[in-house]
Amino acid sequence: MPSGSDIRLPWHLRLPGPLERDFTDFFRDSVARVAPWAALNVVVLLSLALALEFSMSPEVAASTWRPRLLCLMLAVATALVARHGEWRRWLHGLSMALALAVALTGDWMALTVDHPLAFSLFLQTPLAILLMSVLLRVPFYWAVAGSVVMIGALAASLYQGGRTGEDLAMVLLLLSLSSASMSLFGQYIYERLLRQHFLSENVLFQHRDELHSANRVLESQATVDGLTGCLNRRGMESRLDELLHGFSRGGGKERVSVLLFDIDFFKQYNDTYGHLAGDECLKAVASIPRSLTQGDKDFVARYGGEEFMVVLANTSLKDALVVAERMRTRIEQLGLPHSGSRVSQVVTISVGVTCAGEHAADANTLIKCADEALYQAKGAGRNQVAYMNDQGRVLAL
């Protein structure tokens, strides 16, 4: 079974539309787990920077506290958005805004602050690129666009502001380019690996779903009779044992009734009309008890060739006899011709009924009692219902 690791990603990383949308949510959720801590790190660094600027010169702090406050507010907002699932669709955009704010306010402060070390504020651009790509993990193409904007703004500030010499400007610009190239390469590899992991999980999920569906089909094939749609012998035994187990745990408060019936003179039917007609007869007869079982726990099973079993949960013997007689009447009213029958000119059934109790508490005993009642119904002339009462006596209805 393929794991998904053998799927090759295109160099541009883009997946087909629905998968790309799913990956975006997956990526955002993975980033959201670490984004609050990254934002807290930014808050600490900005607070330390403002404290250092105040210790160096109150005049410098008077110029820098507003840009610092803006970045602090964006960092806090990023942390809050990451912690609330319904807000997370804004996470990447807010992370990008925070990184741009750090870079652009650094350029602005480097141009406006009157201090010999003011040029060091230009270093906020490479730091912002690292923040965007390494800490906040914005998508790769967002990071590329953001890096271009930040480095472009830095270049304009360096060469138009006239606050640094050409050599220092070149050093700062190359430092930013180096920071961008390394962080973007790392972001590309990280996102590629994350997409590969996402594809692997997606493929495995599909395989698990297909395997689960196949297991359901196999289970159905193993427990359902293909001709009539009723449970087969194996499925009947499993369901009946489960039902009686619940019956015994409930202290006998719920009654389980079993109706065992077969088609009268079915061998003669096959001999007269052929096996294909016999199959159609079985399907028609099986449809009647299936239409009469209404409860979630009720079921119909094909017990043998022309023998069927109906199991009714939470049903007393009296109510089960009503269902049995109604079933016998409706099958007779189908009017399926049966010239080989010695009791009628149409297809009929004989039914044996029993109810779980002291004389029949387990599945085998219950089926045996229903079989004895069926034998009585056939011995009394067929096309009728017989039952075993609570005292273990078999009586015709």
* Unreliable sequence segments: none
Q: Strand portion, in percent?
A: 5-15%
| Strands in their spatial order, largest beta sheet | 2-3-1-4-5-6
What's the multimeric state? Answer: single chain
Number of domains: 2
The helix/strand order is HHHHHHHHEHHEEHEHEE
Structural class: alpha+beta
The average pLDDT value, as a whole number, equals 87
Helix content: 55-70%
Overall shape: rod-shaped
Number of helices: 12
State the total count of DSSP E strands: 6
Note the main sheet.
6 strands, mixed
Question: For the CA atoms, what is the radius of gyration?
Answer: 40 Å
Protein name: diguanylate cyclase
Domain GGDEF: 254-390
Keywords: Membrane, Transmembrane, Transmembrane helix
InterPro entries: Diguanylate_Cyclase, GGDEF_dom, Nucleotide_cyclase, Rev_trsase/Diguanyl_cyclase
